[in-house]
Amino acid sequence: MALDITAKITCDMCGRTEERPLRESMRHGRLSSDAPSLVREFPHWQLLGRDGQPVTDDRVANGRILCEGCARRYRETLERQRREVDELFS
């Protein structure tokens, strides 16, 4: 029996969406349903934590799903904020 399952991903910053059909895992013949695995199915999309680093653990509940441009801006904003805080205490 064939199942056609489509995943839809939405950027948490700009609202851009993309859809793509999900494929079965080649090793297990199953679909992966955890967020990091699903986001990896979409090229140029990232699941980032509050620190701007990629989330690989599906138990992290505060990740942001971002398109490529928003992920870059998010990391730049975090880096700028870190520099500003460092300058306050220097």
Please characterize this protein's 3D structure.
With 90 residues, this protein is an alpha+beta fold. It has one domain. Helix content is 30%, strand content 20%. The chain is built from two helices and four strands. The strands form two sheets. The protein has a two-stranded antiparallel sheet. A two-stranded antiparallel ribbon has the order 3-4. Strand 1 and strand 2 form a beta hairpin. The chain is elongated. The termini are far apart. The model has no long low-confidence stretch (mean pLDDT 86).
Gyration radius, in Å: 16 Å
Integer average pLDDT: 86
Number of beta strands: 4
| Low-confidence parts | none
The CA-CA distance between the termini, in Å, is: 64 Å
| Overall domain count | 1
The portion of residues forming beta strands comes to 15-25%
Strand order of the largest sheet: 1-2
- Category by helix and strand content: alpha+beta
Properties at a glance:
alpha+beta
At a glance:
By secondary structure, this protein is an alpha+beta fold. The chain has 2 helices and 4 strands, in the order E-E-H-E-E-H.
